[in-house]
Amino acid sequence: MSSAVRIGLTGGIGSGKSTVASLLAGLGAVIIDTDAIARQLTLPGGAAIGAISHTFGAAFIDADGALDRARMRELAFADAGAKRRLEAILHPLIGQETQRQAIAAGDTVKVFDIPLLTESSIWRTRVDRVLVVDCSEAWQIERVMARSGWTREAVLAVIAQQAPRRLRRSIADAVIHNDGIAREQLADEVQALWSHWTAPSKGH
């Protein structure tokens, strides 16, 4: 396989997906992070701000001119229609910026960090391999509470909105099980997978 393999990386909140992405970056991959792109689009002056203000009202734009993420998160959890309207604004813009970054990366291994990869048949057609980082719900809760200060209930609410673990695993070409393993072991697993997927003329 060409060294320019396109890897779709996904996993539930608190699974350790960002750590795996950083390990892949250390091996030479270009990381294209759709969450980071979404944040950029909703910063002051971001390309999505005008449409968000028009669709949801000025109350959803904070004093600095950015998306009020806490208010929007609360609305999206309570109203599936609002979530769909927000996605209709963001997803085309995310797609455009993702494509721009992919072209700019040239003939390099690209890792598309996509939380909603499981839910998107379109994204799955744009990558050569799908890597899922998986862990138990207990570990998800512990990690997110530790890093974000969220309540257990808040973490569970996010988990409930994401694709089930079994569904994510069902689309995977490889699964990294990250139930509290040491970073060194995680790095070894990522290295082994990298060697397997980027080896020339293997056809894997």
**Secondary structural class:** alpha/beta
Which CATH architecture of the largest domain?
3-Layer(aba) Sandwich
Helix count equals 10
What share of the residues does DSSP label as strand, in percent?
5-15%
CATH topology label of the largest domain: Rossmann fold
- The shape is globular
When the domains are counted, the total is 2
Helicity range: 40-55%
Taking pLDDT < 50 over at least 5 consecutive residues as the criterion, the unreliable ranges are: none
Overall mean pLDDT score? 93
- The string of secondary-structure elements, in order, is EHEHHHHEHEHHHEH
CA gyration radius, whole angstroms:
18 Å
CATH class placement of the largest domain: Alpha Beta
Q: Could you give me the name of the CATH homologous superfamily of the largest domain?
A: P-loop containing nucleotide triphosphate hydrolases
